[in-house]
Write a structure and sequence with these properties.
50% of the residues lie in helices and 6% in strands. It is mostly helical. The protein starts with 8 loop residues before the first strand and ends in a 27-residue tail after the last helix. It binds acetyl coenzyme *A.
Length: 432
């Protein structure tokens, strides 16, 4: 709702120059200063490393309030979607910002189910890469390579963009599973189009041609929940990367391949893998939880409490709250116990009562508990971030499409504050 009494401009004074900059108001009450004409009118630019104070676009896809710990996809609270929806339905929701009708959902489910196969030639890409290569690198390569199979000449049409979106959503699980099968030297399993999305991922990862494999419905449902929770998170590092690459006119596959690379980093999606490494190091007696926490508070130690802290959440990440409960549910349903959960709970308790973490508003993020569930589901550690990528796929695509359709969108090209040498004369190498 637009607030008609809200101020419309912000006044900025630089020396003798005074300008009024228009204010923008988001539907959830956010206020932004529109600085599009700032440089033209004053010659100055803004400085915001990490872009923590910069809105890079207007979006209708995801809302999050980091202070209150709120996350909604197109207005629907993440808690309701986690409980009642499915990952495929959430895909549609993000892409259209509306829930699908029954007929739309059936058609869409059919579409993302019947484009799951990869071109047979693309399989050779996997075999050409080292078995020990990280699956995120393999997935980035394979997704980028899809553009060679679906190449277009000239600017793409909305119809082409939609069919690329369907292909990517359908083929990402196959790519992910093949990256795993290649790493362990097992034959690739063709997708099964008669079972649901998450169950099919399990089939392609854990099935073999030698034995009948029926995905465990508890595992499949837990996986579906994880995918829902990871599906979008507005302008995070990888999503901004996808939009930035797309802003140059690059195709969807190339843009998303870059997003996968951005997600891989340990400060972003790679944290889920790092959390398990951290918990296992404590379990194996390298140091106690308390010793680890002391180290995490020391800047020069290079150690951080992985899975804690967030650029936007200054409160409990609502996804972490859901996943913490899901840890108990999944372990209980599978009849498993994991000492890593006890260690995670201990670390969390120490952090929530420690001035260092309280003062900096550092709380568990989505990665803190997700690894424990992936582990319980039998997902190998180096595949955790790949599952994050499968989950984030609809978000990346929705954001990429929104950018392509935004009449105000421009190629992303920030400015800098140059701090290097002033002009000087070139000296030939012999005279230096
Ligand atoms: N452990 C210890 N100290 C931390 C942590 C942490 N996990 N996170 C932040 N801090 C400290 C910083 O050292 C800094 O302290 P200072 O004010 O004394 O200098 C302060 O808290 C603010 O941290 P920044 O790094 O400035 O915060 P920023 O918003 O840039 O970074 C980030 C957020 C990258 C997520 C950070 O909290 C972090 O590294 N967390 C661990 C990695 C992680 O879990 N990443 C996943 C994030 S969720 C996602 O991407 C899916």
């Amino acid at each position: 709702m637009t607030n008609t009494t809200a101020p419309k401009t912000a006044r900025l004074t630089i020396g003798d120059t005074e300008i009024d900059l228009p204010l923008m108001h988001g539907t959830e009450g956010e206020v932004a200063i529109d600085i599009r004409n700032l440089r033209a009118k004053t010659g100055a630019v803004t400085f915001d490393p990490g872009l923590g104070n910069t809105g890079s676009c207007e979006s209708k896809i995801t809302f999050l309030d980091g202070e209150k710990g709120i996350l909604r996809y197109a207005g629907y609270p993440i808690e309701q979607l986690a409980q009642q929806s499915s990952f495929v339905e959430v895909m549609w929701l993000l892409l259209h910002q509306e829930l699908p009708s029954k007929g739309q959902l059936e058609q869409f489910t059919h579409d993302v189910t019947y484009h799951t196969m990869l071109h047979e030639d693309l399989k050779r890409l996997f075999s050409s890469l080292p078995k020990a290569g990280h699956p995120m690198a393999v997935c980035a390569a394979a997704v980028g390579a899809l553009s060679t199979y679906y190449q277009k000449v000239g600017p793409s049409t909305p119809e082409q963009q939609w069919s690329d979106a369907i292909r990517l959503l359908a083929k990402m699980p196959t790519i992910a599973a093949y990256s795993y099968k290649h790493s362990i030297g097992q034959p690739f399993m063709y997708p099964r189009n008669d079972i649901p999305y998450a169950a099919n991922i399990l089939h392609m990862m854990f099935g073999t041609p030698c034995e009948k494999y029926e995905p465990n419905p508890v595992v499949a449902r837990a996986l579906d929940l994880l995918l829902i929770l990871h599906a979008d998170h507005e302008q995070n590092c990888s999503t901004s990367t996808v939009r930035t690459v797309g802003s140059s006119g690059a195709n969807l596959f190339a843009s998303v391949s870059a997003g996968i690379s951005a997600l891989w980093g340990p400060l972003h999606g790679g944290a889920n893998e790092a959390v398990i490494d951290m918990l296992m190091a404590i379990r194996d007696g390298e140091r106690t939880a308390r010793e680890f926490m002391e180290l995490a508070k020391k800047k020069d130690s290079g150690v951080r409490l992985m899975g804690f802290g967030h650029r936007v959440y200054k409160n409990y990440d609502p996804r972490a709250l859901i996943l913490k409960q899901a840890c108990y549910d999944v372990l209980g349903q599978l009849g498993k116990k994991d000492p890593l959960l006890d260690i995670a709970l201990e670390l969390e308790q120490i952090a929530l009562n420690d001035a260092y973490f309280i003062d900096r508003k550092l709380y568990p993020n989505v990665d803190f508990y997700s690894g424990i569930i992936y582990k319980a589901l039998g997902i190998p550690t180096d595949m955790f971030t790949v599952f994050f990528a499968i989950g984030r796929m609809p978000g990346w695509i929705a954001q990429w499409l929104e950018y392509q359709r935004d009449p105000a969108a421009k190629i992303t090209r920030p400015r800098q504050i140059y701090q290097g040498s002033n002009t000087r004369e070139y000296t030939p190498v012999g005279a230096r």
